[in-house]
């Protein structure tokens, strides 16, 4: 009865247009009021408990590091560096879009930040160079989804806390699928660049290449510092995020002098606004997840699916379909908090390692960032490009298909996900 009430309430509030964070809080509240017997003070307690985790403090610090990098003009230096790497290919700006997303992913760990920072520079540039507007927005939106996969990753931090999985190992597990996403997207770019005869630039000289590398070197070092510190045990995920902030400030204030002390209050306020939204969703989703657990929904789901089939191949396929659907209408952090305790027991029962499942889960959900009705990255790219959603939605289909191909590889070729973490000491289940 409670589960049915949760489903009906959830659909009802969504249909009314209530923001997803409040939907996640109101839905369990309604169920608790109708059922009775549970003190409502528990709602506030669970919301606070959901946010009261030291590891989650890494999220606002990584967001702040990304804001500092963007404000300090460091994104432009990365664009120049990527131009040397791939800008001379036909469709060079589109290749740059993908490659810089892969590099930027190692700084922010957030897709939305990547879309805004990179899109504001490259979408207008691509339009000026004669690229189709819908294509420019599509490649920007989809390439930004690499951000939550390549370390550091905010979704991996959330999943690691919920699933009690090593965050450092999750970061390592994201490297191969993240690189594959970039390679597959560049394959799509190569096809359209040839078919539509997009422009290309001249091959840079050795002097130009060395200069661009020298200027971008300090920025490129940041991901190595973050990941290296985690792997060596020098600092925790939260401490690594703090290091990223101080390093970004050092580059922006001392080295490049592109950030002034008067800029810091604005940066902090913007970061607080973004972080508060993420933490609100996490807190509200926590009470939802608690109600599901108290009603033994994870056990019910496990028993129901195993009663239909015990084939790992079919179960994984069904799970991917469900997760892709969920990702189209629910925010990533909320989905992780609700679905992890429900699906993780099922995955463990059929022999799927929690580390492997974490990668599959995040890959599914980030694809939803580029699909209506809640495709945040898609909306941001459309806004920057000043074009209609339906046009970009059609242009984005080949890129989504490339992401789905990577998802299938990650799902069924477990060794690709596990090889790097195991090499660095991870012990599989």
Description of the structure:
With 429 residues, the chain is mainly alpha-helical. It has one domain (39-423). 78% of the residues lie in helices and 0% in strands. It has 22 helices and no strands. It has helices spanning 2-15, 20-35, 41-51, 58-71, 74-86, 92-108, 111-128, 133-143, 154-163, 167-173, 175-195, 206-232, 237-255, 264-294, 297-308, 312-329, 332-349, 354-367, 376-385, 389-395, 397-412, 414-423. Helix 4 runs antiparallel to helix 14 and helix 6 (92-108) runs antiparallel to helix 11. The longest helix has 31 residues, at 264-294. The two termini are 35 Å apart. The mean pLDDT is 84.
Instruction: Give the low-confidence spans.
Output: none
Biggest sheet record: none
Count of distinct structural domains: 1
Mind telling me the C-alpha Rg? 22 Å
* Multimeric organization: single chain
Strand content: under 5%
One letter per element, helices H and strands E, the order comes to HHHHHHHHHHHHHHHHHHHHHH
- Estimate the mean pLDDT confidence: 84
Let me know the number of strands: 0
- Portion of residues in helices? over 70%
**Discrete helix count:** 22
Q: Give the end-to-end Cα distance, rounded to a whole number of Å.
A: 35 Å
Class per helix and strand makeup:
mainly alpha
Principal-axes geometry comes out as globular
What does the secondary structure layout of this molecule look like, with pairings?
Blueprint: H1 2-15, H2 20-35, H3 41-51, H4 58-71, H5 74-86, H6 92-108, H7 111-128, H8 133-143, H9 154-163, H10 167-173, H11 175-195, H12 206-232, H13 237-255, H14 264-294, H15 297-308, H16 312-329, H17 332-349, H18 354-367, H19 376-385, H20 389-395, H21 397-412, H22 414-423
Helix pairs in contact: 1-2, 2-14, 3-14, 4-13, 4-14, 5-6, 5-12, 6-7, 6-8, 6-11, 7-8, 7-19, 8-19, 8-20, 9-17, 9-18, 10-22, 11-21, 12-13, 14-17, 15-17, 16-18, 17-18, 18-21
């Amino acid at each position: 009865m409670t589960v049915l009430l949760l489903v009906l309430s959830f659909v009802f509030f969504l249909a009314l247009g209530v923001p997803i964070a409040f939907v996640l809080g109101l839905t369990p509240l309604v169920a608790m009021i109708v059922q009775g017997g549970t003190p409502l003070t528990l709602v506030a307690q669970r919301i606070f408990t959901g946010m009261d985790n030291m590891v989650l403090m890494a999220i606002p610090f990584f967001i702040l590091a990304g804001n500092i990098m963007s404000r300090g003009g460091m994104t432009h230096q990365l664009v120049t560096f990527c131009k040397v790497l791939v800008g001379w290919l036909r469709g060079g700006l589109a290749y740059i879009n993908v490659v810089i997303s892969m590099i930027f992913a190692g700084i922010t760990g957030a897709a939305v930040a990547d879309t805004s920072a990179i899109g504001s520079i490259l979408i207008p540039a691509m339009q000026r160079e004669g690229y189709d507007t819908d294509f420019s927005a599509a490649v920007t939106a989809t390439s930004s989804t690499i951000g939550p996969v390549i370390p550091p990753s905010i979704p991996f931090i959330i999943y690691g806390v919920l699933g009690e999985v090593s965050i450092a190992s999750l970061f390592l597990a994201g490297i191969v699928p993240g690189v594959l996403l970039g390679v597959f997207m560049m394959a799509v770019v190569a096809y359209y660049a040839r078919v539509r005869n997009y422009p290309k630039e001249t091959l840079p000289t050795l002097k130009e290449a060395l200069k661009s590398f020298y200027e971008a070197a300090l920025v490129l070092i940041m991901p190595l510092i973050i990941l290296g510190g985690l792997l060596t045990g020098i600092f925790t995920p939260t401490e690594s995020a703090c290091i990223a902030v101080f390093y970004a400030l050092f580059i922006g204030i001392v080295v490049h002098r592109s950030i002034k002390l008067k800029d810091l209050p604005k940066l902090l306020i913007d970061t607080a606004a973004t972080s508060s939204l993420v933490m609100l969703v996490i807190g509200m989703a926590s009470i939802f997840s608690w109600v599901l657990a108290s009603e033994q929904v994870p056990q019910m789901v496990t028993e129901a699916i195993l009663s239909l089939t015990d084939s790992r191949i079919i179960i994984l396929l069904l799970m991917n379909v469900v997760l892709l659907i969920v990702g189209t209408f629910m925010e990533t952090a909320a989905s992780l908090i609700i679905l992890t305790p429900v699906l993780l027991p099922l995955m463990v029962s059929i022999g799927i390692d929690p580390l492997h499942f974490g990668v599959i889960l995040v890959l599914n959900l980030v694809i939803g960032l580029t699909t209506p009705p809640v495709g945040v990255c898609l909306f941001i790219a459309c806004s920057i490009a000043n074009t209609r959603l339906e046009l970009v939605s059609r242009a984005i289909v080949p890129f989504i298909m490339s992401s789905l191909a990577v998802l299938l590889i990650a799902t069924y070729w477990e060794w690709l996900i596990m090889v790097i973490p195991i090499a660095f000491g991870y012990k599989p289940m």
